[in-house]
Every structure is written in structure tokens, then in C-alpha cells.
Amino acid sequence: MALHKDSYVELNDGHKMPVLGFGTYAPQKFPKNLAEEGTKVAIDVGYRHIDGAFLYGNEVEVGRAIRAKIADGTVKREQLFYTGKLWSTFHTPEMVRPALEKSLKDLQLDYMDLFIIHTPMEFKPGDDIFPVDENGKFIYHNTDIRDTWKALEECKDSGLVRSIGVSNFNHKQLELILNMPGLKYKPVCNQVECHVYLNQSKLLEFCKSNDIVLVGYSVLGSSRDERWIEPSAPVLLEDPVLNAIAKKHNCTTAQVAMRYHLQRGVIVLAKSFTPSRIQQNFQIFDFRLDAEDMRRIDALNRNMRYFDTSKLTDHPKYPYSEEY
């Protein structure tokens, strides 16, 4: 498809999602007001898709930025696409709607455009975001994910959210929902780690064949959050192949990395709180990678994850033991 700054994909429920989103996550050491300032800059630059989450702890600030940009006439609410996420301590069906309502209250929005299950791995229900036992081990819980999904369907029916989806699911976990008795709405998307070292080609094919959009996070590598990222992991934006292709097109390696995924049909989330980079990352619509560029970037795949989830491998719903 021809990509331009207002490009969107039509989701399987008829709603439209802009192909480029602004990510609002930042490691804890960053002040919360950066998310507010960054979101304002992003909307000014042209982003219409804002990706947030309860877990990020900054929905109040992001909501303020959205309302400021609506108030000053930059955008109308219906032109924006906001994604929120159901955290892992709220999978029990009776906690789903209150969790969504809490985020909406923090954001001061009447509805979300998209609400997704943040990860299939559930923790002990309650207010402790990462509940651990006396030995420092995570305390798991095991609600049937289909019951969680039914509660999301009810949120959609009540008008609190337009579309519903999932994140960090493997194809078997997606199939569990797709094949569930009485399914009312298919997930519109699966948001997963996706970059040139983990190009998710099999999961992408699976999602496309089921009319589910793949949304990629960590497209530029990672935020190098010490809690989750292996410090020795290669810096994606220093990759020599990406650098060579960027020189050829007279653009940045970040722009090449993002453009690659857009051309494969992946929705791209870009995170930065630096105004010049927010602007640069949006400028990926005025060049095109050729077939040879795409082939060279395809060859960089090494199924490498930046997010280290080794502490969670014993979770009954750990998604990454499957190939895709």
C-alpha cells in the first residue's frame, strides 16, 4: 500500500488504526512530565496514534497532553487513536472493567480506541503490580484467558472501548481465543517486540492469515531499561547494514528500521522524548526501501529478544517457549 503520513489500516472490526504510533513508555528513572511534553510534541508533529498503558504509570500526564492538544485546536478527539493495556494483576473477569475505568479516569477520556491484554502471563490479583513471595519470586495466577477476553468483549459492548486486542501472545494463545466457543469479537491486533533482529515473520504471517494486525514495539531496539534489558545486547541503531542503507537513502538508521516494518505491514510504535527525534521518526513517508534493501534487512534476523523474561519461564502462560 502507498504509505503517507495519514496512512492507517482497517481493523477486523471496521475501526481504523494509524500505521505509525507514538510510544509513551520510559524507564522509571525518567520524570513523568517527559511523557506529557513528548506526547504534545508528537501530536504537533503529526502522530495520531498514542500507545500507553497502566503499567507505565503516566496515563495522567499523557491524558493531560491529549486534552491540551484538543483544547488548543490541534486535533479533535475522534482524530486520535489511544491504546491502553490491561495489566497482569487484573485478568480476573470482575477486575477488567474497573481497570479500564481507572485508566479512563486518569486519562480523563470517555473511551479508549483500543484496550489490549498487556501479556498473557497473569500475576496474583491486586494492587501490587509485581507481587512477589518472601523469596522474591513472582506470584502467579491462572485465570482462563478466554474468561478475561469475554470481559473485554463486554467493555467493547458498553462503549468504553472501540476495539480490543492482545499483546505478547504466541500463535497458540491467539488460537485459544480465536477458537473459543461464543467468540463475539476477534482480537484486532497482537502487539509484540519486533525489530530487525526479531522480525517475527512467522507470527506476522499467522496474524495476517487471521486478519489480525501485528503492532511492533522496540522497533528501534530498546530503551535500555536496566531492569529488563541485557546490557550486552547489540545496539540496533549501530548496525552496519542499517547504516549503509541509511546513507544510500540519505536518512537515519532509525528511519530505515521503521520503514522496513511498515513496508512489511507491521504497525510501528516509536518511542522518544527528544523533540528532534520525535520529528525525525515521523519522517518515514517520503522514501521507500527497494527489494534489495528489504532482503538485506531480512537477513539480519536472529530471533533475539531485547526483553529478558528469563525470570518468568516457569509461568504456565509463558509465551516465548513457542517458536512464534
UniProtKB/TrEMBL annotation:
Gene3D superfamilies per UniProt: NADP-dependent oxidoreductase domain
Sites where the protein binds substrate: H118
Pfam families, sorted: Aldo_ket_red
Keyword Repeat found: no
MF terms (GO), sorted A to Z: aldose reductase (NADPH) activity; ketosteroid monooxygenase activity; steroid dehydrogenase activity; structural constituent of eye lens
Entry similarity comment: Belongs to the aldo/keto reductase family.
Species name: Xenopus laevis
Active-site residues from the entry: Y56 (proton donor)
Annotated keywords: Eye lens protein
Gene: akr1c3.L
InterPro entries: AKR (IPR020471), AKR1C (IPR044482), Aldo/ket_reductase_CS (IPR018170), NAD(P)_OxRdtase_dom_sf (IPR036812), NADP_OxRdtase_dom (IPR023210)
GO cellular component: cytosol
Gene Ontology terms describing biological process: steroid metabolic process
Protein name: Rho crystallin
UniProt xrefs under CDD domains: AKR_AKR1C1-35
